[in-house]
Amino acid sequence: MSDRQEWLQWLHGLAPEATVEDAGDWIEVLLAAGALPTFTAALEENHYEFATLVVESDTASDGFVLRYFFYDPNDGVIVAIRIAAAPDERLPSISQRGHAAAWHEREAEDLFGIPFEGHPFLGDYVLHDSVWPEDVRPMRPEFDPRERVTTPGIGVNWRPRRILHQEGAIIFPVGPIWADYNESALFLLETPGEQIYECHSRLFYKYRAVEKIAENQTREQGILLAERFSGSSAFAHVWAYCQALEKIGGCDVPPRAQALRTVFAELERIRYHAATIAALASSTSLAVGKSMSQEVEERMLRLTGQVCGHRYLFGLCVPGGLAWDPGAAALATLRAGVADAAKEFARLERRFVRTSSYLDRIEEMGTLPTEVADLYGVVGPVARASGRTVDLRRSLPYGSYADHRPDVPRELEGDGYARLRVYFAEIRASVALIEVLLANLPGGAIAAECPPAPGAALAWTEAPAGGTFHWLRIDDTGRIRRWRIAPPGFRNWHAFHRALEGAAFQDFHIIMASFGLSIAESDR
Amino acid sequence: MANWTLASLVRGIRTTRWPRRDDIPPGAVPLRLDGRAGDGREYKRLEDGAASPGNAVWTFRTAHSQGPLPRRFRHSVHVRFVDAGADGACISEVRLIDAPPYNMHRFGIFITASPREADVLLVAGPVTEAMRGALLKAYDAMATPRRVVAIGDEAINGGVFGKSFASAGGVHEVIPVDFIVPGCPPPPLAIIQGLLAAAGQIDVPQAEMTP
């Protein structure tokens, strides 16, 4: 099915009672809440991928408008299922079949107070019960984000959920402050002694409520937030945010800016993966390998700092293009620097794959089989190491990716070694893409006018850790009404515990490092 | 089997000689330390090759600072890092302070796993509501004398996250802070300078405006 009309008809056939309309970027299906599970099941059967769930408050009715976004990875069609919910209406959960939406529903339940019928785990998610009282719903419009909630939670009376009931079984807590420089999160490992049977990942220790504090802010303040909530994948997020603004304003980004944005996004990917490779070497106590990886990571950071004046690409992307043109000399430095680093990466990879003691630690360790990765809708390099070639750069091309399709590696084993190979292969693909883009860089303006306009849009980028979706609604005064960030970690952290099942304690660090995920990015 | 040791010996020393010598490589310290969009002017300055930050000051004492640790700690300081809601860039820079290009161990600074063994608490992030208790516990577990170094704009005054129901708006709102290292994120050299100041190996000025 390539014709849009055919898609509309097909969707209409799935739910004859629903209204199907073409909303420009996506096809919107207005559905009764009861029909949701069967409709989403039909989409999943037709290999649609779940993108994100966007909840917005409906000021007219005091209720909520929910949009479940799905996309077809082969044809690039985006479908939004729109549900209007009354204030306390119970909605059916869609995460029984596939689990991709499970954490989105948990989040909506915790922050908006929308109950989902049939969801196995609700509550105690973003807002930890030990810290927050039960009735706090920060994303509701009447909640004032400036005031601290003074009512305490249940504190020390909080008890983790136990799944393993066996004599001598214990829950081994890791976090929230743990080991050397790890990010804050709590992992409760259930074990009868040596093996990890179950892991309960408790994230959101770093919840800074970006989506809430962004409300009523100007779009310039939104840029600062988009860069700073994740930091290590700042460019991917600010690019998605700017794309949303550009779609709302209907402005065209000049080709030179598109190409350079693509270059910087790939530069970020190389650096991000270098850090992951270093962390993986460090977790296996391969000190020299870690040092050498960090050296090349630092080299990428310095190169970025030299070319852009900032090591993490902050302050570069603006609505309509880039803040300034780096100029020919700086781009020549960048091209030479990336080519140089590519040689170093190749040397490093050769050393790693020839170190049998290292491979012993990562082979057949933390395996995520393809069917589990599919079930959780895992994205990014983790998915590609488990045989899932989901990549927004190819499925829903943006920037210069329509003309320059990147090579997407695919490994089938789904273990730590497969992930390591994917990281190196992605670095190679990114280096090749940067080389092609810089060799054929179009001239012309670096930015176009992008005046503020009211409206809503969905934008996306393939962040280093996987696809991310940003939904943005701007009100009549040009301020942010709703900004929904769906980070890649939302799927991958959810599937993380499945890779831990049966692992030994000392493998916990290694499996975590091999996932290459940022907690700041998913906690927001 | 790759011979890592031999490979690393052949490569030789890769560590900067800073601060003994003024050899800060280009890009090691960003020109836009706060990460805000520039108009490209700073960048032009860099292209001329004239932008070596030299012996720049990146660290400041706070108004209520206890000053550096006593003299006997000068060459042996143990640090515990606490992520109180920091962004990934900040954490990435902290991870690099003991990487070969910077190698903080040459100053006698070490990372320890437990706050009980720590002399300095290195805190990043605006202190989220969920981390408030954990940060307090870590601070209370430390033996005196102890010092707190807050790194990054978020840790100093909340930065872009400010003060809200989810963010305390800076480390000083929860525990007393002795040194601050501004920057978003502060580069590894600046973080090391903050630790050197806490160890008493260098003198730093007092911040004009402290939170």
Any descriptors?
heterodimer; A: 524 residues; three-stranded antiparallel beta sheet; 17 helices; 15 strands; 41% helix; globular; B: 211 residues; alpha/beta; 6 helices; 6 strands
Explain how this protein is built.
The complex is a heterodimer of chains A (524) and B (211). Chain A is of the alpha+beta class. Helices cover 41% and strands 16% of the residues of chain A. Chain A has helices at 4-14, 36-45, 102-112, 210-213, 219-228, 234-249, 255-283, 287-308, 328-353, 356-362, 370-376, 380-385, 392-395, 416-439, 489-500, 507-515, 519-523; strands at residues 19-22, 27-30, 49-57, 64-71, 78-85, 91-92, 116-117, 170-174, 186-191, 198-202, 317-318, 321-322, 455-463, 466-474, 480-486. Chain A has a five-stranded mixed sheet, with helices on one face. In chain A, helix 7 (255-283) packs antiparallel against helix 8. Chain B has 211 residues and is an alpha/beta fold. Chain B is built from six helices and six strands. Chain B has helices spanning 4-11, 41-47, 88-95, 129-141, 153-157, 188-199, and strands spanning 60-61, 77-83, 109-111, 120-124, 147-151, 179-181. A six-stranded mixed sheet of chain B has the order 1-6-5-4-2-3, with helices on both faces. Chain B starts with a helix and ends in a 12-residue tail after the last helix. At the A-B interface, helix 4, helix 5, helix 7, helix 8 and helix 9 of A face helix 1, helix 2, strand 2, helix 3 and helix 4 of B.
